[in-house]
Design goal:
Structural class of chain A: mainly alpha
Number of helices of chain B: 10
Shape of chain B: elongated
Structural class of chain B: mainly alpha
Largest sheet of chain A: none
Radius of gyration of chain B: 18 Å
Number of strands of chain A: 0
Shape of chain A: globular
Number of strands of chain B: 0
Strand content of chain A: under 5%
Largest sheet of chain B: none
Oligomer: heterodimer
Strand content of chain B: under 5%
Distance between the termini of chain B: 26 Å
Chain lengths: ~260, ~220
């Protein structure tokens, strides 16, 4: 089933059909979500209007973690089954994930200023998310750090799997350490400790962010596949160097001449 | 076992005989620590307050400095391929190389640290904790660093890339190592931090050679 959909040609056809719908759904859900979050949802009894930052901050944080997990799973598949699509999926998702992590850090900082009275504290949750951001940057730098793209993709896959150790640390940092950051209030054992009037806009925004990720990922994967195709075409078109295209008359270059067609 | 010891002795011999690696790392460690009093001023109270952090950060950077030499010489002269082809599992070869790296760079850092602690006015009671924390933490630096060294083999601008990959992974030992020294300087118990630091190293001991060997295999493909 995975192999059936992991065929690059089939992926190109399928994603071309899905992409416009996915993009439209993203825009629609983002509009609804932002309206619910900024207008309909009630202000917090303590934080006032500043609580509305949550509707961007929390989904971005969820996505930052989930995208890293996605990269790790895709990397694992790429290492085990050597599927080209898994590699492209992993490397295409990385800048998007880094973007979500950056949004999470910036909105968190803007939210912290009025509520905590500081832009930044070195508590466990903030620090581990910052490390996640650096892991994303390291992954992107490593994947692009080699002259041979295939080597970069494989090295990146190993790094992505090593970096997974950071994910549980981020998720449970608020439970293990006594942090300024509040503990989990939605994804926890038992019922969420957040009012329904705030939970609904939050979930709509989260769905919108997920769709945004899917849309961007498809666009980037299509670009990656097209790039690869263009590279292959260019390599095929490349003229054979004159030293290789030797005259068959000269006996010294016979072996080279016989290798000629294979090179072409 | 002979092969394991052979790799260990070969690497250690190269590191010590060329004199470059160990000497350079120690010189860097001393210089990095000595720079701080120039930067933050020579007041003893301020230095004593941040001494734990200074020593740990400097040790971490010094360990980082020598990482690119872990596989690079063998990679260039083809020895790494022979090691990979040998009957000895690559994971164990990696472990031997990491151990040699630790003895050549980590252990001298540990031995030199009490002297440098005097430079930055660390509370004398905290010096045993400093040595213990470095002794527990530096193997982690060599083990996890070997993963990044294997990943960046043959990359453009290997040094920068290596630090970008390895520094985020070095945050946990830094937090707990410096935490232990600071706790002991303030008269609190350093034991919890030291235990976590030891747990980190113990977890890295089987896992890091495994990841490092996987990275080496795809570098040699």
């Amino acid at each position: 089933m995975i192999n059936r959909f992991a065929n690059p040609a089939r992926f190109m056809r399928l994603s071309a059909a899905i992409l416009p719908w996915c993009a439209a759904a993203t825009v629609a859900l983002l509009a609804i979500g932002l309206y619910l979050a900024l207008v309909v949802a009630p202000p917090d009894y303590q934080q006032g209007e500043a609580v509305r930052i949550m509707y961007v901050h929390v989904p971005a944080a969820w996505l930052a973690l989930s995208v890293y997990l996605f990269i790790a799973v895709a990397s694992g598949v790429a290492l085990v089954s050597r599927h080209p699509l898994a590699e492209i999926a992993a490397r295409s998702a990385a800048p998007i994930g880094a973007g979500f992590t950056f949004i999470c850090l910036v909105t968190g900082s803007l939210w912290g200023r009025p509520i905590w009275g500081t832009w930044w504290v070195w508590d466990a949750r903030l620090t581990s998310v910052l490390v996640l951001f650096f892991l994303y940057l390291g992954y992107i730098a490593l994947v692009n750090g080699f002259d041979d793209p295939a080597r970069g993709a494989k090295a990146g896959s190993v790094l992505a799997l090593v970096g997974v150790v950071n994910l549980p640390i981020i998720k449970f940092s608020v439970d293990w350490w006594n942090t300024l950051h509040q503990p989990a209030s939605v994804l926890r054992l038992g019922a969420p400790t957040i009012a329904l009037s705030m939970l609904v806009p939050l979930l709509v925004m989260a769905a919108a962010f997920w769709l945004l990720f899917a849309t961007l990922l498809m666009v980037r994967m299509r670009t990656g596949l097209n790039e690869r195709k263009a590279l292959a075409l260019r390599l095929n078109r490349m003229p054979v160097p004159s030293s290789v295209r030797a005259e068959p008359a000269s006996p010294a270059s016979e072996s080279v001449a016989s290798a000629g067609p294979a090179l072409r | 076992m002979t092969a394991l010891y052979g790799i260990f002795r070969h690497d250690l011999g190269l590191a010590l005989r060329q004199g470059g690696d160990t000497g350079l790392v120690l010189a860097f460690f001393v210089l990095a620590v000595v720079l701080f009093p120039f930067g933050v001023g020579p007041e003893a109270e301020i230095l004593a307050r941040i001494a734990a952090g200074i020593l740990w950060v400097a040790a971490l950077l010094a360990a980082l400095l020598s990482l690119d030499r872990l596989y690079q010489p063998d990679y260039e002269d083809g020895g790494l391929e022979l090691i990979a082809l040998a009957p000895l599992p690559l994971e164990l070869a990696v472990l031997a190389k990491s151990a040699a790296h630790w003895v050549a760079t980590g252990l001298p850092l540990v031995l030199l640290s009490p002297l440098l602690a005097l430079f930055v006015d660390l509370d004398p009671h905290a010096i045993p904790t400093l040595v213990a924390s470095l002794l527990l933490g530096t193997p982690f630096l060599s083990l996890v660093g070997s993963i990044a060294a294997a990943l960046t083999l043959g990359a453009r601008r290997q040094g920068v890339l290596l630090s970008l990959l390895v520094l985020p992974l070095y945050v946990p030992p830094l937090v707990f190592g410096a935490g232990a020294v600071e706790a002991s300087a303030l008269g609190a118990a350093a034991r919890p931090d030291l235990l976590i630091l030891g747990a980190l190293t113990l977890a890295a001991l089987p896992l890091a050679p495994w990841a490092s060997a996987a990275a080496l295999r795809q570098a040699l493909e």
